[in-house]
Amino acid sequence: QVQLVESGGGLVEPGGSLRLSCAASRTIYSFKYMGWYRQAPGEQRDLVARIRASDSPNYADSVKGRFTISRDNDKNTVALQMNSLKPEDTAVYYCNAEDTFGRPYWGKGTLVTVSS
User: Fold this and answer.
1) What's the mean pLDDT in 98-116?
2) How distant, in Å, are the alpha carbons of 10, 44, 51, 113 from that of 79?
3) What is the Cα–Cα distance from 9 to 101, expressed in whole angstroms?
4) Residues 18-53: pLDDT tens digits?
5) What is the pLDDT of residue 79?
6) Which residues, 6+ apart, have CB-to-CB distance to 53 below 8 Å?
7) Helices (H), the chain
8) What's the pLDDT score for residue 81?
9) What does the alpha-carbon distance between residue 80 and residue 34 come to, in Å, rounded to a whole number?
């Protein structure tokens, strides 16, 4: 088991930036994937970005070149730097951990609103 707590959400104007952070209650070293998903109202939860310990990260096409995921196994944190934000990025963002058995763990989410 692990508890994941997101922070950093809020209201930002189009073109602005936000940095989300996810703090884990224990070491994340053993998790196969750490990632971020998002869910807009009335939509399904979709992958935004995820990263393994040793491989290059994966990004949704819609965020490539704008978002950057980073993982710090020593601090047990995962961050998502979001630049050039668009209104369509508005959603609740969830931190996710996936163990070697494929079991997912979720945070409670943080709301990101992109609006002028």
Assistant:
1) 96
2) 15, 22, 11, 18
3) 30
4) 999 999 999 998 899 999 999 999 999 999 999 987
5) 97
6) 29, 32, 71, 73
7) none
8) 98
9) 11
Q: Which tokens in the block code for residue 12?
A: 């930002």
Torsion angle in degrees (nearest 10) through CA of 14, 68, 31, 74: -110
Does position 55 have pLDDT exceeding 80, yes or no?
no
64 contacts 1 by C-beta, under 8 angstroms: no
- Mean pLDDT for the chain? 95
Question: Distance (Å, rounded) from C-alpha 116 to C-alpha 57?
Answer: 31
Residues 6+ positions from 66 with CB-CB distance below 8 Å: 82, 83, 84, 85
Check: CB of residue 69 under 8 Å from CB of residue 20. Answer: no
Tokens of 91: 């959603």
User: How large a percentage of the chain has pLDDT more than 90?
Assistant: 91
Q: In angstroms, rounded to a whole number, what is the distance separating the alpha carbons of residues 52 and 45?
A: 20
Phi, psi of 87 (to 5 degrees): -55, -35
